[in-house]
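Sharing a chain and its predicted structure for anyone who wants a worked example. Both blocks are below, sequence first, tokens second.
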Amino acid sequence: MTGATSIRILNELVNTQRRTTEVFAALADPTRRRILRQLSAYEEITVTKVARPFRISPPAVSRHLRVLEKAGLITRRRAGRMHLIRAQANGLEKAQHWIEQCAAGWQFSFDTLDGLLRRQRKGSHQ
């Protein structure tokens, strides 16, 4: 493996960790989770319509949308004077992959512990 390849792999790992952290940070806020849930009902929606059910200022909604956009969970585009928002399901893939890896590790640990306990029980009954 060349030095350039090692650096590229390391950069990819760091960027993946950063993206995963951004997704979890975005999802940590209940307002942003509600926005995502709302967006899941539409292909595309105006920022004004996104903001309507919330009792927060338009600039606060805009800040929430920027966090979601930076995390790759939404895209934003302009059509004339309208700002349109769209959910990006693939934005959850990095976090979903991380959760799956953790779950697989935990399952392996639990299976190993279960096997150990079974062997111990068999040994104490003899």
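Comments welcome. The domain at 3-125 is CATH 1.10.10.10 (Arc Repressor Mutant, subunit A).
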